[in-house]
Amino acid sequence: MGTPPLVTISASYGAGGSRIGPAVAERLGVEFLDRAIPTAVADRLGCSLDDALAHDESLGDAIGRLASSFALLPELAGAMVQAGVLAGEDYRRETERLIREHAAAGGAVILGRAAAVILRRHAEALHVRLDGPPERRVAQAMEYEGLSKSDAERLRRDGDRAREAYVRHFYGVDARDPALYHLVIDSTALSTEAVVDVIAAAV
């Protein structure tokens, strides 16, 4: 076999990235990078995991859950993003360094963290975007996570906003732009297995 597969996955909320990413990694026989990223960044910077998570791209989930748990107004969750919670340059640089190191060392499936932008000049990387109509992503999140419709909708709205703000803030691009990806898949219309098949075939 030649060069180990390298896949970046950008997923909007409810598109199933946290299910599809590990399944793709298992199919390809490579490491899956998601939750391990803030842990490694915290170790490198000598800070707490909570601090690293506060600056991580997955903050979208945290904001949504916080808003859901404490019944905060959506405007407050948005204000948290705009107030600079995502502006940690040290965290961004270390996350970027970690992604580049994994890309150089061997294959991986990397979920989020603007990896498609960071590795856009990497000749061997396949960049994938998982998306779908908002209402179907909400329904899928309700099924996967056992959420009420109102909680799932709030998580979708705040999660999408935080993730898009992260990519726009640090890289000046729109995470939804199909030009960033080789594949854009409606993962609300296909089963997880079918999406994995499509990505594996493209690799």
Total discrete domains: 1
Average the pLDDT over all residues and give the rounded result: 82
- What is the C-level CATH assignment? Alpha Beta
Low-confidence stretches: 59-87
CATH topology: Rossmann fold
Classify the helix fraction into a percent range.
55-70%
Overall geometry comes to globular
Note the quaternary state here: single chain
Q: What would CATH call the homologous superfamily? A: P-loop containing nucleotide triphosphate hydrolases
How many alpha or pi helices?
10
| Helix-strand makeup class | alpha/beta
> How many whole angstroms does the radius of gyration measure?
16 Å
Q: Strand arrangement, largest sheet?
A: 2-3-1-4-5
Largest sheet: 5 strands, parallel
How many beta-strand segments?
Answer: 5
What is the first-to-last residue Cα distance? 13 Å
Proportion of beta-strand residues? 5-15%
Can you walk through the features of this model?
By secondary structure, this protein is an alpha/beta fold. It has helices at residues 17-28, 36-45, 49-54, 59-70, 74-85, 89-105, 115-118, 134-145, 149-171, 192-202; strands spanning 6-11, 31-33, 108-111, 125-131, 183-186. The protein has a single domain (6-202), classed as P-loop containing nucleotide triphosphate hydrolases (Rossmann fold, 3-Layer(aba) Sandwich), CATH 3.40.50. Strands 2-3-1-4-5 form a five-stranded parallel β-sheet, sandwiched between helices. Helix 5 packs parallel to helix 9. The two termini are 13 Å apart. Residues 59-87 have low confidence and may be disordered. InterPro entries: P-loop_NTPase. This is Cytidylate kinase-like family protein.
